[in-house]
Design brief:
The chain is of the alpha/beta class. The protein contains 15 helices and 13 strands. It starts with a helix and ends in a 6-residue tail after the last helix.
């Protein structure tokens, strides 16, 4: 059987391969999988739903009580009133939310802007939707979004842009100037902004997460993608959502019905037990660990900029003399430490081979042990060029 051209264009996810390696016993500081459990009340509510026989389809738009929880979270996070009945769609994780949004606002051959470096799955999801990815380069060390970088790749076919803030992998949090710039471009050229905000509750050093959702002028041409799986440290539950104006939401829901029909009923019931106090406060939980990882990597010779938000530290390898792919492979083989090479986040090897991505959410002790093993490895094994 010959695969479709669409299927042939989509590369396997390198990060998924790392997840398989993580089961081998290596210390994993590559993948954003926190070790904690969801709030007990959420787990108990899901178990109760199973025991009560909630095994059949739920409302395709999402359980009304869960949409109300998401609306409450939007009010807490953004200070914005969202209509749970007409502006929220519950999806199978943020990945389906992104695909549903792209299928809603683009036609085959339309172009979608992606900020580079990008989260690995973005190009493939754009290609699956039938659209064409175009890349807006963000330059180290600041990784700032500039008008020149955006307008350089605009074309009459540009239909959407995917904005990720806090950003994976760099940890940038888009500021007011950058957000205004992007939304002005979107409004001037009739472009939809799809904003992946799955790390919106993990912002450091007193910063604020900013979203088009809080900009009245942007509500009609933006779709917000979020994740309760991240907010509750339960990535395997796969509960995401889209927030958009009522007209767009009506179309999002039609597309969602044709992709997955609906989201897991008993797990939605569990997530509906969420209280505001249960939402992960990433700054309180992770900032100290972030600082420890940044300091540890810096002491080993990596070039590190402290992330402003999210779950990851993007570290440069050039000063060590190690290409990132070779270093990540040798760390796994010789030190029993998993880090993500830069290759999932860039198109060109000359860009990607200068970076690794690490995470501070796997637990303090495994992180410290991983840093110790990396230090021992780097002191014992010279880079391949020497």
């Amino acid at each position: 059987m010959k695969p479709s051209l669409r299927a042939q264009a989509v590369a396997p996810m390198e990060l998924a391969g790392l997840q398989r390696l993580a089961g081998s016993g290596a210390l994993d500081i590559a993948l954003g999988i926190p070790p904690g459990d969801p709030p007990a009340a959420v787990v108990e509510a899901a178990v109760s739903a199973l025991r009560q026989g909630r095994h059949q389809y739920a409302d395709a738009a999402g359980l009304p009580e869960l949409r109300a929880v998401i609306a409450e979270d939007a009010l807490r996070t953004h200070g914005v009133v969202v209509d749970a009945d007409t502006e929220i769609t519950v999806t199978v994780g943020a990945t389906e939310a992104l695909l549903t949004a792209l299928l809603t606002v683009t036609d085959p051959g339309d172009e979608v802007l992606l900020l580079e470096p990008y989260f690995e799955l973005y190009p493939g999801v754009v290609e699956l939707s039938g659209a064409v990815p175009r890349f807006v380069r963000l330059e180290a060390p600041d990784w700032r979004l500039t008008e020149e970088a955006v307008t350089r790749v605009l074309s009459p076919r540009t239909r959407a842009v995917v904005l990720n803030t806090p950003h994976n992998p760099t940890g940038r949090v888009v500021d007011a100037q950058e957000l205004d710039l992007l939304m002005n471009v979107c409004q001037e050229h009739g472009i939809v902004c799809i904003t992946d905000e799955v790390y919106d509750c993990t912002v450091f050093d007193g910063r604020r997460h900013l979203s088009p959702l809080a900009m009245p002028s942007a509500r009609s041409n933006s779709v917000i993608v979020g994740s309760l799986s991240k907010k509750l440290q339960m990535t395997g539950w796969r509960i995401g959502y889209c927030i958009a104006d009522p007209e767009t939401t009506a179309v999002l829901r039609r597309i969602h019905q044709h992709t997955t029909v609906g989201t897991n009923h008993p797990l939605q019931s569990g997530a509906s037990a969420l209280k505001a106090s249960d939402v992960l406060d990433g700054q309180l939980l992770f900032q100290e660990r972030r600082d420890e990882l940044v300091a540890g990597l810096s002491s080993l010779g990596f070039t590190v900029r402290p992330p402003e938000g999210g779950w990851f530290v993007f570290a440069g390898t050039e000063a060590l003399g190690w290409p990132a792919r070779a270093l990540s492979r040798r760390l796994a083989e010789s030190a029993g430490v998993l880090v993500a090479p830069g290759s999932p986040f860039f198109r060109r090897p000359e860009d990607s081979d200068r970076w690794i991505r690490t995470t501070f959410v796997r637990g303090a002790e495994p992180m410290r042990e991983a840093l110790d093993r990396m230090a021992e490895f780097l002191s014992a094994e010279p880079p391949p060029s020497t």
